[in-house]
Amino acid sequence: MDCARVENGAGNGRGTAAVAGRQDGEAVALRPHAEDAFAKELAALAAADDRPRPERWRLSPWAVATYLLGGTLADGTVITPKYVGPRRIVEVAVTTLATDRALLLLGVPGTAKTWVSEHLAAAVSGDSTLLVQGTAGTPEEAIRYGWNYARLLAHGPSRDALVPSPVMRAMAEGMTARVEELTRIPADVQDTLITILSEKTLPIPELGQEVQAVRGFNLIATANDRDRGVNELSSALRRRFNTVVLPLPATPDEEVDIVTRRVDQIGRSLDLPPAPDGMAEIRRVVTVFRELRDGLTTDGRTKLKSPSGTLSTAEAISVVTNGLALATHFGDGVLRPSDVAAGILGAVVRDPAADRVVWQEYLESVVRERDGWKDFYRACREVSA
Q: Which domain of life is it from (predicted)?
């Protein structure tokens, strides 16, 4: 793979328009890869990093953790936090990648598993794109290898006809591969990873050959067991991973901080102006989601029924981002209850019968009686009618 070194500040060469600035008429990536969006931070860390680095790592484990958790370098460079949560979780994840154990990031939807996975790969290997996206239809070839059938028919099995998977490429180049939503992949396809993770080889029986992983190779997988349609990991496969559980934000303030940071990042990429006085609505969205998720009001006095959805931090980010877009394009630019009400309704009411009852009870028994929430109550009632 042709990729520039992080040390030179150029990222990996794929998203330079997004990093360097927009030129007139130039296409800009909608969502730059982590190594492109944060190329300056990665370059500053590489320049200041004098600690031992595992073979083929772009940064030391200490610098990788600093990249994810944030900090200020000796030269004054500010590293923005990519993950807000317990430091020990990040340290364990980074340490796992420095060993020969694969890393499994486990948690309910919305706990930043994919986000952490991408940034770990960007910091360790300088490339977060060696990715297998797990779905119910993911074939074995997506993990092992496929074939260029024109060459296969013309010349028979050969290395030229073989199409390497992202995992095979990571093994050959000593880089970090990612498998997203591992539990969405059929069980027999999941088990393709067992030989790769235990023997560090990928047999190619058609050629009588194998690909051996070189030092620096490792794999990060993400999984959750909350969604419907998941496939449990076999005991044999789970043993090949070191599992790190990513928790939901511990406090409302922590979750508000996460939502605010991500909405700001997404808003900049979409050319949405910062929403003045938007913090009040962000805090309301987070409060509603946490109370319904926990089945208890924040003061601990009222028990609530919980809807069928997860009401994750990621969904809160989506609701606020959509509200910001509404306020920008169809309002006065100020984020108001009417901008987030429809998004909250869509996130809460997944089952039209059961969830609507839960939502109506919450509106009437909690929101209606809460001081300073009258405008929010009216907006929610309007979209819920």
A: Bacteria
CA angle 258, 264, 269 (to 5 degrees): 130
Are 323 and 197 found together in one domain? no
Instruction: Look at the alpha carbons of 84, 101, 218, 158 in this order and tell me if their dihedral is positive or negative.
Output: negative
**Residue 71 bridge partners (DSSP):** 79
Q: Closest Cα partner for 91 from 112, 119, 61? A: 61
Is 327 within a domain? yes
Give the ranges where 101-142 is alpha helix by DSSP (H): 113-125
Q: What's the CA gap between 211 and 56, in Å, rounded? A: 18
The residue among 196, 224, 245 that closes a domain is 245
Question: From the CB of residue 278, how many other CB atoms can be counted at a distance below 10 Å?
Answer: 23
Per residue in 38-96, pLDDT (tens digit) is 999 999 999 999 999 999 999 999 999 999 999 999 999 999 999 988 999 999 999 99
Which CATH number does the domain housing residue 154 bear? 3.40.50.300
